[in-house]
C-alpha cells in the first residue's frame, strides 16, 4: 500500500509540474526585456528623462515619471529635452520622450534602446504618435496614460506582463488591453504599474555593474552611425525578432556588430 501511495504521489507531482509549465500565471511571469538594463554602480540610480512633448502630453509624462518613482532601485527625473518631437534623436546616458504627428505609420507608440557590451542600455527614446492619438478611439486620458507608462518602462528594461487585448486586465500598464481604464469584464485599470512591475525591476537591477552607462557617453569604439542612427522609419528597424499572437506588439533588432544593437518595441494601433 505504501508503494502505491508513493507512486500516486510521484505521478501527481509530475502532472502538477507539467501543468504549471504549460499554463504559467501572468502575475508571476518574468517580464524583463531580455537582460537589458542600464549599467550602474549603485542603487537606487537616477535616470534623466528628456521632455520633448507638448502641453497635451506634459501631464501624462509627469504621471508616468511619478508612477515609476516608487521603485526602490530607480529614480526618474524630468529634464529639458535635447531634441525635438519630430526628430526625437537619442541622447547618450538618458531617455528622450517625444510626441509628434508621425503619420499613418500604424503604431501608437514605440520604445527604442541602444545597447552596448551585449546587455547594457546606453541611450533610449520613447515616441507617441499624435496621428492616432488625435483620433477619437485613442484620444482619451486612459489610452495616453497606458501607452506613455508602458513605453517609458520598456526604456529601462521591462517587458509586457500579458499581450492579449481581450482578456481581463492585470492592473498594470505593462498589460495590453482593449479597455485601459477597465470596468466590467476588464476589471481594474491598466493605466499605472502594479506591484509585480516593481518586483520585476528589483529583479532586473538586483546586481551592480563595474561601470555605468547612466549620464555618460556611449563607448568610444561604437561602430560608425550607431549612436545617431536614424530609427524613425520601419525599414531602419532591422529584423523582426518577436511578435505577439495577434500582431499588435512587435520587437525589432538592428545589429551593428560587436554587441552594439538598437531594439525597437512597437505598440501597433488596431
Provide a count of the helices.
Answer: 5
> Whole-number average pLDDT?
88
* C-alpha geometry: globular
Q: Separation of termini? A: 59 Å
**Helix-and-strand structural type:** alpha/beta
- Helix share of residues? 10-25%
What is Rg? 20 Å
Number of DSSP E strands: 9
**What is the string of helix and strand elements?**
HEEHEEEEHHHEEE
**Beta-sheet strand percentage?**
15-25%
Q: Return residue spans where pLDDT drops below 50 for at least 5 consecutive residues.
A: 1-29
Largest sheet: 9 strands, mixed
Describe the structure.
With 270 residues, the protein is an alpha/beta fold. The chain has a domain of 172 residues. The chain is 23% helix and 24% strand. The protein contains five helices and nine strands, in the order αββαββββαααβββ. Strands 1, 2, 3, 4, 5, 6, 7, 8 and 9 form a nine-stranded mixed sheet that branches.
Amino acid at each position: 500500500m505504501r508503494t502505491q501511495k508513493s507512486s500516486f504521489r510521484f505521478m501527481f507531482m509530475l502532472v502538477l509540474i507539467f501543468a504549471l509549465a504549460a499554463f504559467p500565471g501572468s502575475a508571476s511571469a518574468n517580464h524583463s526585456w531580455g537582460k537589458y538594463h542600464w549599467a550602474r554602480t549603485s542603487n537606487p540610480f537616477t535616470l534623466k528623462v528628456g521632455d520633448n512633448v507638448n502641453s497635451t502630453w506634459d501631464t501624462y509624462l509627469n504621471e508616468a515619471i511619478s508612477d515609476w518613482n516608487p521603485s526602490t532601485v530607480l529614480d526618474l527625473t524630468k529634464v529639458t529635452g535635447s531634441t525635438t518631437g519630430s526628430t526625437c534623436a537619442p541622447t547618450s546616458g538618458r531617455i528622450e520622450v517625444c510626441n509628434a504627428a508621425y503619420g499613418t505609420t500604424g503604431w501608437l507608440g514605440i520604445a527604442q534602446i541602444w545597447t552596448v557590451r551585449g546587455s547594457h542600455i546606453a541611450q533610449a527614446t520613447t515616441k507617441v504618435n499624435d496621428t492616432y492619438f488625435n483620433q477619437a478611439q485613442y484620444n482619451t486620458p486612459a489610452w495616453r496614460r497606458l501607452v506613455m507608462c508602458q513605453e517609458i518602462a520598456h526604456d529601462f528594461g521591462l517587458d509586457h506582463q500579458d499581450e492579449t487585448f481581450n482578456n481581463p486586465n492585470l492592473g498594470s500598464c505593462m498589460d495590453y488591453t482593449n479597455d485601459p481604464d477597465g470596468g466590467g469584464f476588464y476589471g481594474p485599470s491598466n493605466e499605472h504599474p502594479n506591484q509585480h512591475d516593481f518586483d520585476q525591476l528589483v529583479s532586473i537591477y538586483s546586481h551592480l555593474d563595474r561601470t555605468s552607462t547612466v549620464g555618460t557617453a556611449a563607448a568610444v569604439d561604437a561602430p560608425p552611425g550607431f549612436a545617431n542612427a536614424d530609427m524613425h522609419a520601419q525599414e531602419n528597424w532591422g529584423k523582426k525578432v518577436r511578435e505577439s499572437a495577434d500582431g499588435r506588439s512587435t520587437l525589432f533588432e538592428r545589429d551593428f556588430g560587436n554587441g552594439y544593437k538598437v531594439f525597437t518595441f512597437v505598440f501597433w494601433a488596431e
